[in-house]
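To the team - 1-deoxynojirimycin complex, inputs and output below.
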Amino acid sequence: MAFHEMRDQPASNDATQRAPWWQTGVIYQIYPRSFQDSNGDGVGDLRGIAQRLPHLIELGVDALWLSPIFTSPMADFGYDIFDYTDIDPLFGTLADFDALIETAHRLGLKVILDLVPNHTSDQHPWFKESRASRQSPKRNWYIWRDPSPGGGPPNNWLSDFGGSAWAYDRQTGQYYYHAFLAAQPDLNWRSPEVRAAIYDAMRFWLRRGVDGFRVDVIWHVVKDDQFRDNPANPNFQAGNPAHHAVVPLYTADRPEVHDVIAEMRRVVDEFSSRVLIGEIYLPVERLVAYYGRDLGGVHLPFNFSLLGTRWHARTIAKLIDEYEAALPAGGWPNWVLGNHDRPRVASRVGAEQARVAAMLLLTLRGTPTIYYGDEIGMQQVAVPPDRIRDPIENTLPGLGRDGCRTPMQWDGTANAGFSPAEPWLPLSSTFREINLAGERDDDTSLYQLVRRLIRLRRSSPALLSGSYQPLLASGDLLLYARAWRRDRLLIALNLGSEPTAVTFPSHTLAGRLLVSSFGDRDDEPVLGTIHLRGDEGAVIDLSDQTILP
Ligand code: NOJ
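Output:
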């Protein structure tokens, strides 16, 4: 496909015509360090991303979300920001950013940035000023507390990255709170000045044309103003991450957070057609509260339920049902299969089931987010100890995230076409077999399947905006229907490796196979019985059928 080629418009029907782009589109997450290196330093950058935009166009996605690209000491690879309104030299310049957004927009791609409002770097001038003295005008911009009466941290709050969440500052004799690394002090969102400063940073990027934000740990932003101890977790077991020893009752998901999010949303709404997405790891009944009162919260509270699920038909059917049932009226669903914090889906469910997983992601109701490399089945990489970069591997051994952040596998040449230099993280040893160039030439590849599914989505009102109806979850079989008026699809997924079949009374099931996950059964008639091979998924067109609602 030519670089300048624009994508087809999505299927046109009254629902999709009214729907905002973030409902009909597919989001693609880029981890900038690992996408494409353009200057030979072994680390990906903005010019590299711009060079690779044709891949996104060919894949068929609508929006890219960039993990942080802002100036940062990189203690947590950009999630520790030094300057909210500048680009880290490692990634390029503001001019490179402007060029990227200009090209992306010309190609019809939206650009979403990561907003990290919960904490800054400890090198941020705001924190330096705050820690300078107890009388500093910015003291209140962070969360400072006296030691507990007996000495030691003010309370039992724990860092998600291990140990106490309180770091002692010898010079001023107080502790500051950090939910993550000590190098990531939490901002005090009870301060109106802090809020105003972050909202200004948001406006800076919105004016530059960004189409929205994915907001980092949005459910953490407000903490208890009485600093009560978190209760012990009765379900804690040896071997669990240390911070699970307490329930984060007073450190996250506080009721006041919704007022803050409503304010952020109003900032985004000052501009037209922008999106606000929240990173939220919470049980579904708490998660859906983040749509906000009258849907004035985030547009999309990221739904991570597929990231940790057991790969069983009934388990998945149940989590879909619970999610669908919990959504507030008008709340738009979304699904995520992978991100830069969790093991690669192809390793979680296996290479064979990765195809079935892709079909699930792209046929469920709601906006899908694809993590870079998952479209070609990149696997989790066992990073050798001397190449580990993620600081949390030290405090939470085995939970380091390097393995899902390795360079994109573009082709089978040196360094997989990612960089002329040794990449910052090692490549997967499988890059000569699993890479984009090889999969482009193979009609039966995962990549071609993902492309087909995205294309099908774009052309199907049922997939874009139709209803979801659960049909069957039994053994390894998961069946559901998507329908928009006469556009009706049945999705049948075999989550196991053995062949399986399901039979309906023959007059009730007569359709046509649109896409098999193996790419080889186009237009096959389906009459009465759906046969699936092991690890096969199928999308079946039932548009002329009457049985399905
Ligand atoms: C969530 C991000 O996804 C993760 O990568 C980061 O380490 C933490 N927030 C802290 O910013």
